[in-house]
Design brief:
The complex is a heterodimer of chains A (192) and B (173). Chain A has 192 residues and is an alpha+beta fold. Helix content of chain A is 40%, strand content 17%. Chain A contains four helices and five strands. Chain A has a five-stranded antiparallel beta sheet, covered by helices on one side. Chain B is of the alpha+beta class and 173 residues long. Chain B has four helices and four strands, in the order αααββαββ. Chain B has a four-stranded antiparallel beta sheet, covered by helices on one side. Chain B is globular, with a radius of gyration of 16 Å. Chain B starts with a helix and ends in a 13-residue tail after the last strand. The chains are: A alpha+beta (192), B alpha+beta (173). Chains A and B meet through helix 1, helix 2 and helix 3 of A and helix 1 and helix 2 of B. Chain B: This is Trafficking protein particle complex subunit.
Chain lengths: 192, 173
């Protein structure tokens, strides 16, 4: 198969993995502190997230609210970067309906259901779940690799934070892996 | 919506962020250049497998065919550009790739302040070198000219280190 977009993805995946390896190797050789690697990766992701949104949403109509923005991140943004959508978006606001199911990521024509909200969703916490995160799928699924997984999530945390930043949302983004290659990104909206 | 150019932008923006970070971490341009070359090498040795899986290419029987393959197939596939190829009049195993467009510098107008010796795209040299090594071709790969440094065009030099033997040797499938 020689679809051009797949080649682009392969190149990005390799660049990302070697960025992680390179930073940690440099840290081991005493060129900078170990603990800073995660921060550096996150900062790089932040810059890229800002840059992508800047180029990406030039012609897109303004979003109506914060949830709209989060759905954009889960759908269009995630698809651009990772060729699939976020599988599940949760927010902490309405406990009786706290899970917004996004369509199955492999159905190209499935429509995205817009949920009507009874009231404006205030700033809070969103959890984005990706069941087959592209930056983890090449890693072995064994439990012994779980400790390395955070290194491969830092850049993407920054990516989300940077994207949101350019959409006017200040946030803190963390991530966790429970079972490879699924992971969750937790977005905590900050009041400006 | 998403498109090929968006995905390439992801790579280009990520590369830009990497270079910016390296400029913070290393004072000397040489050190950044070396780091980029090393990273490129590590990518190249893995990328070639991806390339061979994607393209039903014939075995190259000469350095010239190999360089053409790099310029016309590999560069096209991964970066969407086709550098032109020329070879040295004086040195037998030396070839040049001239990049008229270079997506890696799409968002770069000039080198960062105080970074006059920075080979911004040095990762490309490492990638080519690593990929060639995986098909048993040792080569030195360097930027000969660089538009970002004020040269008229951007040119990569590939110098194969061994005289190509006449007998066929095994290649990776």
């Amino acid at each position: 198969m020689t679809r051009p977009e797949m080649a682009d993805e392969a190149l990005f995946l390799l660049l990302h993995n070697e960025m992680v390896s390179g930073l940690y190797r440099a840290a081991e050789q005493g060129e900078g502190e170990n603990g800073r690697c995660i921060t550096k990766l996150e900062n790089m992701g932040f810059r890229v997230g800002q840059g992508l949104i800047e180029r990406f949403t030039k012609d897109t109509a303004r979003f109506k609210d914060e949830l709209d923005i989060m759905k954009f991140i889960c759908k269009d943004f995630w698809t651009t970067v990772f060729k699939k959508q976020i599988d599940n978006l949760r927010t902490n606001h309405q406990p009786w309906k706290d899970s917004y199911q996004l369509h199955g990521s492999h159905q190209a024509n499935a429509s995205f259901t817009t949920l009507t909200l009874e009231r404006f969703v205030p700033k809070g916490i969103y959890v984005l779940q990706d069941n087959k995160f592209r930056l983890l799928t090449q890693m072995s699924a064994g439990k012994q690799y779980l400790e390395y997984a955070p290194k491969y999530l830092a850049f993407t945390c920054g990516l989300i934070r940077g994207g949101l930043s350019n959409l006017g949302i200040k946030s803190i983004v963390t991530a966790e892996v429970s079972a490879m290659p699924a992971c969750k990104f937790q977005v905590m909206i900050q009041k400006i | 919506g998403c498109c090929n150019s968006c995905r390439r932008e992801l790579f280009v923006l990520t590369y830009g962020a990497l270079v910016a970070q390296l400029c913070k971490d290393y004072e000397k341009d040489e050190d950044v250049n070396k780091y980029l070359d090393r990273m490129g090498y590590d990518i190249g040795i893995r990328l070639v497998e991806d390339f061979l899986a994607r393209s039903a290419v014939k075995k190259c029987r000469s350095y010239s065919e190999t360089v053409d393959m790099i310029a016309q197939v590999a560069f096209k596939m991964y970066l969407g550009i086709t550098p032109s190829v020329s070879r040295s009049n004086t040195t037998e195993n030396e070839f040049f790739l001239i990049l008229e467009n270079n997506p890696l510098v799409d968002f770069v107008e000039e080198l960062p302040a105080g970074r006059t010796s920075l080979c911004y795209c040095n990762i490309l040299c490492g990638v080519i070198r690593g990929a060639l090594e995986m098909v048993h071709l040792a080569a030195e790969v360097n930027f000969i000219q660089d538009r970002l440094k004020g040269d008229d065009f951007t040119e990569i030099g590939i110098t194969f280190l061994k005289k190509l033997e006449d007998k066929k040797h095994k290649r990776n499938k």
